[in-house]
Design a protein that fits this description.
286 residues; alpha+beta; 3-stranded antiparallel sheet; 26% helix; elongated
Length: 286
């Protein structure tokens, strides 16, 4: 009786072809599953940060977390304490300040970690703790925290949003400029012309730029996903930003949704952007 002891060449080639086809089918599925897991982790990070801001407010007579404390002798570096450092007592780990959907970088050295000084999420301080500039360099910056429970529509007011990948720019203060906006909170609202509706003196984010073509964020960011047309608000989750709202819930939003109440579109010049329906605008406290 003849006993077969090996595959033929044709049979081996067929098996290899089947494995190659299965790999071609499954690898994209694995990649999608990995991206979905990262997105879930990013949403969780945003949620935990928002809870930390609520605990801060509970300890500070309902006041929103300060966007920064300048000339603070207790700060670990440069006498500036950003909001991320103020949240540390209310967070189990500073790793939640990093976005799994974002690429890492090794752009600078700092006495603290990249987590605190270069987070991938931004606090919408223009609404919750605006900074008023009275002149005189850094000493002229005054933070004015608002009441957490004083918001008219907390479920429709942005609190935190995914921020651009800061790359190799300065840690959180723009050195050489005297004073400036930081990568720690460097996002701007859709409409920003040197102020916002509640306080004309309040400094807006991302170099005072609004959303659109020709803005400062558009000139410094080349990646649309990382906020080139949206004042550094990042849309890394399949073209959507991860948002924590002022009532504590989180969601993902497309650029058009976050620009609701304005005439923004990807081809609009920044100088031509206006608010045309304040009832839909989600970047104010009204």
């Amino acid at each position: 009786m003849h006993i077969r002891r090996a595959f033929t060449l044709i049979e081996l080639l067929v098996v290899i072809a089947i494995i190659a086809i299965l790999a071609a089918i499954l690898f994209p599925v694995f990649a999608q599953a990995k991206a979905a897991a990262k997105a879930t982790a990013s949403i969780s990070n945003t949620k935990q940060q928002s809870l930390a801001t609520f605990m801060y407010s509970a300890d500070t007579d309902d006041m929103q977390i300060l966007h920064a404390v300048v000339n603070d002798p207790t700060a670990p570096a440069d006498n500036h304490r950003p909001w991320t450092l103020l949240m540390i007592p209310y967070m189990k780990t500073t790793a939640i300040l990093q976005d799994p959907l974002s690429t890492d970088f090794k752009g600078y050295t700092n006495p603290t970690t990249n987590d605190e000084y270069a987070p991938r999420y931004a606090y919408v301080y223009q609404v919750h703790c605006p900074v008023v500039y009275y002149g005189g360099g850094i000493g002229g910056l005054v933070t004015t925290p608002s009441s957490q429970t004083g918001l008219a529509q907390p479920a429709n007011t942005v609190l935190l949003v995914s921020d651009r990948n800061v790359g190799v720019q300065g840690p959180w203060w723009w050195y050489g400029a005297g004073w400036g906006f930081s990568d720690t909170y460097d996002v701007g609202s859709p409409y920003c012309s040197g102020g916002y509706s509640q306080n004309p003196l309040s400094l807006c984010g991302a170099g005072y730029s609004s959303w659109g073509l020709g803005s400062i964020s558009g000139n410094t960011n080349t990646n649309i996903e990382e906020g080139a047309l949206t004042a550094s608000v990042a849309f890394r989750k399949a073209g959507r930003a991860i948002v924590a709202w002022a009532d504590g819930h989180t969601s993902t939003q497309a650029a058009g949704q976050l620009a609701a109440g304005t005439n923004w579109n990807p081809t609009l010049q920044s100088a031509n952007l206006v608010i045309n329906d304040m009832t839909k605008y989600v970047w104010d406290n009204q």
